[in-house]
Design a protein that fits this description.
- By secondary structure, the protein is an alpha+beta fold.
- It has two domains: 196 residues, CNF1/YfiH-like putative cysteine hydrolases, CATH 3.60.140.10; 35 residues, no CATH class.
- It has six helices and 13 strands.
- Strands 3-4-7-6-8-12 form a six-stranded mixed beta sheet. Strands 1-13-5-2 form a four-stranded mixed beta sheet. Strands 9-11-10 form a three-stranded antiparallel beta sheet.
- A hairpin with a 2-residue loop joins strand 10 and strand 11.
- The longest helix is centred in the first third of the chain and has 15 residues.
- The two termini are 24 Å apart.
- 46% of the residues are buried.
């Protein structure tokens, strides 16, 4: 990683790669999604390995059915969800549980106010970002006792602008929702643009006035051995797995 931003010692976070799992073929190897066509038993083992790396059990690892929405789910209990909810961000002030976001080009965003003990994890594709998922995540964090000036946000591996060429249709749809976003579309030919997703996500975070925000600088599309990429796999006629990004708030007795 190229980031200089670090969470405090009471926060445990990981941006997992596609390595060190048991899935095979297009999903090789640490695929963390059962919704893409992988063997569910292999995905369960991959999730067990993720939890083990974090020092917890799978039951303490909370995830969502992600839909590119602006819905934030507060986690107010350490008990596992009875049914996995639909949404694109999780926020909690509960210690010793972990919040996970699955991606394959979209931006995973981990947020923490370590002083007040509030954390969040958001799935920010372009639809979610323009729709307000980041602002909504921060709002729920504030409702749980976080302070804006204490929140740090780290944007994980995602598709970089040099790998993200889009058409005029996407640009027009985007600008209908956020006219200021034109700064993040760079023309490359007639009707074609490179879109800077991490730059746009970073700008949305900085506009909220939080304490710090940074991108790790890793391109899921270009780093094929390290990361799943939906766009790269689609262009090859293959299926794509999902990597997971996780953040947890540790109990003070653990450090």
């Amino acid at each position: 990683m190229k980031t200089t931003l670090c969470f405090s010692e009471n926060i445990r976070s990981r941006f997992f790669t596609r390595k060190n799992g048991v899935s095979t073929g297009d999903f090789s190897s640490l695929n963390c999604s059962v919704k893409v066509g992988d063997d569910p038993a292999k995905v369960r083992e991959n999730m067990r390995r993720v939890a083990s790396n974090l020092g917890c059990t799978v039951e303490k690892l909370f995830v969502l059915h992600q839909t590119h929405s602006s819905i934030v789910i507060p986690v107010v209990s350490q008990e596992p969800f009875e049914k996995t909810p639909y949404g694109d961000a999780l926020v909690t002030d509960q210690p010793n549980i972990f919040l996970g976001i699955k991606t394959a080009d979209c931006a995973p965003v981990l947020l923490a106010d370590s002083q007040n003990g509030v954390i969040g994890a958001a799935h920010a594709g372009w639809r979610g970002a323009v729709g307000g998922i980041l602002e909504n995540t921060i709002e729920v964090m504030l409702e749980m006792g976080a302070k804006k000036e204490n929140i740090s946000a780290l944007i994980g591996p995602c598709i970089a602008p040099q790998s993200y060429e889009v058409g005029e249709d996407m640009r027009e749809e985007f600008l209908k929702a956020d006219v200021k976003a034109s700064l993040f579309f760079v023309p490359v030919s007639v009707g074609r643009y490179r879109f800077d997703l991490p730059g746009y996500v970073l700008a949305r975070l900085e506009h909220q006035g939080i304490g710090a925000a940074e991108w790790v600088g890793e391109d899921t599309y270009a780093w094929e051995k390290e990361y799943f990429s939906y766009r790269r796999s689609s262009q090859k006629g293959e299926k794509s797995g999902r990597q997971i990004s996780v953040i947890g708030l540790l109990d003070e007795s653990l450090f």
